[in-house]
Amino acid sequence: MMASKAIVVTGAGGVGKTTVAAALGVKAASQGKRTLVLTVDPARRLADALGVELGGRPRRHPELETLSAGMLDSAASWITVARRHADPEVADRLVTNEFFEAATIHFPASQSYAAAEEAIAYIESRKWDLVVIDTPPAAGGIEFFTAPARMSELVGGRLLRLLTGGRIPGRTALFNRGAKPLLRFADQLLGSDLLERVAQFAMDLRTTYDGVSRRSRAIEGHFRRATTLVVTTADPAPLSEAARFFMELPDVASAPKAVIFNRTLPADWVGAAIPPRTPTALADNLRRWEAEAHRQRDARNGFAARFRVPLVTIPWLTEDPTDRHTLEAVVDEASAWPDLW
Ligand SMILES: Nc1ncnc2c1ncn2[C@@H]1O[C@H](COP(=O)(O)OP(=O)(O)O)[C@@H](O)[C@H]1O
Ligand SMILES: [Mg+2]
Fold this sequence. Notes:
Blueprint: E1 5-11, H1 17-30, E2 35-39, H2 44-50, E3 59-60, E4 67-71, H3 78-85, H4 88-96, H5 98-106, H6 109-125, E5 130-134, H7 143-155, H8 158-164, H9 171-174, H10 181-190, H11 192-206, H12 209-225, E6 227-232, H13 236-247, E7 258-264, H14 280-307, E8 311-315, H15 324-332
Parallel strand pairs: 1-5, 1-6, 2-4, 2-5, 6-7, 7-8
Antiparallel strand pairs: 3-4
Helix pairs in contact: 1-15, 3-4, 6-7, 6-12, 7-12, 10-11
The structure holds adenosine-5'-diphosphate and magnesium ion (MG).
């Protein structure tokens, strides 16, 4: 069997990515596909419905045996990456280095990168026909796809090459300050101890380069073969985030197969007549909802026309879709889906 088929569900925060990923997973599994859903920080009740456990490895659903679900560790980032790609002793030194913490804070792509590495390990394990991947919020959507390139650029990047030379140098070469005016100057300015710690950090980080660049290329390969689905609502902020997937998507991602408008009001509310003698307050309310349905419909149609992309609409349900049956309803009550599995 080839590596599993993968669906990547992305979009702005709060639009329903986790819900849609879970719903597609439940649906595919109920149609007999051996499916793994990888969620990110699901709401409590949703996690319970999927049978996922915090920090645990993917588990088989107690009732739906074709379904497994796991949680991508959204706190995992540099520590995981360092432990995966550096010798244990180097990794220990890296994670306790003070600059390491600064790098964690200032380089959020590491979080997306760590999640992507984890996700593709499951795709490559070939245990499932289909792997549905929810994307981490820190990624803000598109950054999930650019994280591998940014990560390998960082660990093998120019700043580090400047500090450590073309190849990973021995310590003596690095601390041969006479040969490097920049280092000599920094030494006087900052004190040699600080400089030494920076240099140590740079060298240690650099040792992860081979592993990180190899996995980055693998991640990008999986991204290109995956089906990308962009989720949005008709509101301006998520819509402009969704538009970025069509204007700025790096060539490592496949063109989105559909844009999913979630929490959609019924299209037949547009232009609906308000019966005579409807009490004023109620009539006002209905007019407001009619206007909102109208606005949503225009936003949807405008988006689909502008980017020539198939549209899927999911209705605004009256309760949070958090159990198996309401999750299936999310898929069933949507307008036509493209072929996904
Ligand atoms: N179609 C829908 N109708 C009603 N509530 C929804 C719908 N889709 C998602 N929700 C609810 O909206 C909230 C945000 O959804 P979630 O999937 O967590 O978004 P994201 O993962 O993009 O941050 C959750 O409480 C979820 O249950
Ligand atoms: Mg989510």
